[in-house]
Amino acid sequence: MNIVFFADTFLPQTNGVVTYVIETGLQLKKLGHRILFVIPKEVKKSQIPKGFSPKNFCFAPSIPADVFYPNWRIALSYSYRIDKTLAKFKPDILHIHIPLTISMGGILAAKRFNKPLIGTYHTFISSEEMFKMIGITKGKGTRVLKKLSWEYSNLFYNRCDLVLAPTEKMASILKKNGIKKPITILREGINFHKMKILTNDEKKTFKKKYQCEEKKVILHVGRLSREKNLPLLLQVMALIHKKHQNIHLLIVGDGPQKKELMKTAQKLEIENAVTFTGSIPREKILSDGIYSACDLFLTTSKFETFGLTVLEAMGSGLPIITVESQGAPELVEENGYICKDNKHHIANHVIKILSDTKLQKKFSQQSLKIRKKYDSKKTTQKLIQIYEKLIAEKKIKTTKNKFTCPPILLKTKDGDRF
User: Going by C-beta distance under 8 Å and a sequence separation of 6 or more, which residues neighbour residue 106?
Assistant: First the structure.
């Protein structure tokens, strides 16, 4: 199959959507399919992911939009260059990933080439956490903004032949808020073979590097921005630190809220119990075994529709603690706890796991057991089956339309029609 991904975000940005499209694209290539990415800006040769070449990319004309988010670009939906590239590529199916300008180009291309269109709902743009990114907090017009954001995203997804939701809860939310097209649940996956599991000696060396040797380490990985609910993460650590100085928090990632969070850690007097590593490339996080060097994974984000970092943590056998939301909790199956959005509730459960070696081991083993069904090869094979079904249905529909003629009305001499 010839498959086109339309994504408004790509490297050098690092986020769950970028991770998904690259990982899935690689698996599709390995399974013998051709893949083309339509993305904003031209990716430098040094930024092209391993397994791809420049011919796998088509770049939409775009302008910087750092005012909205670092490294963000607003792209032209469609252009002569995109049309020419697609015509040469001869797509069998088109797949949009974010409801922005490039995905609008995907909708136009689906009509232009009469091919099936599929859309994955990665980003919960109607969540209150999303509104925090633009400085709108609860009670300040969020009801109106929610309604408008649903109407906006539905403009995209209701033009697809099929919508993919990563969890059952997200599928239910979509149906409730106006998605009228068929919805299929397809959980995202990752390549666990890229992950290194450290030996005990390697774990000691890692902890020494970050000055947390002889301590239990809580890990958080992700973008440091307002929608991630990170002040709560630090408040939880402050409660834990009061009673347990042998527990350390390691925050891996960078983002626009980093400086603010570092100041918050100082105000809470936990700057010596928290380490901000800054940005570390995802490939290095996996290949260096950073997940496996830690003792527990904690996320307080309510924004994700799925939670790839949670899945990566599970892949290294970490117990998981997450808060109630539409995504990550579905990954917790007797391998951790789903907590209320409350610092005391979360802190108590962190301490419960890290104070009980048997419980920690039990959750660790369960995480390794669960991860098998989220292998990217398996999830991509399911995606291929979905593609094949849509392509077959489109061909049948096109054939029927081709051979269906409008009725011809004939008149007799007496004026009767038949």
Answer: 4, 6, 38, 94, 95, 96, 117
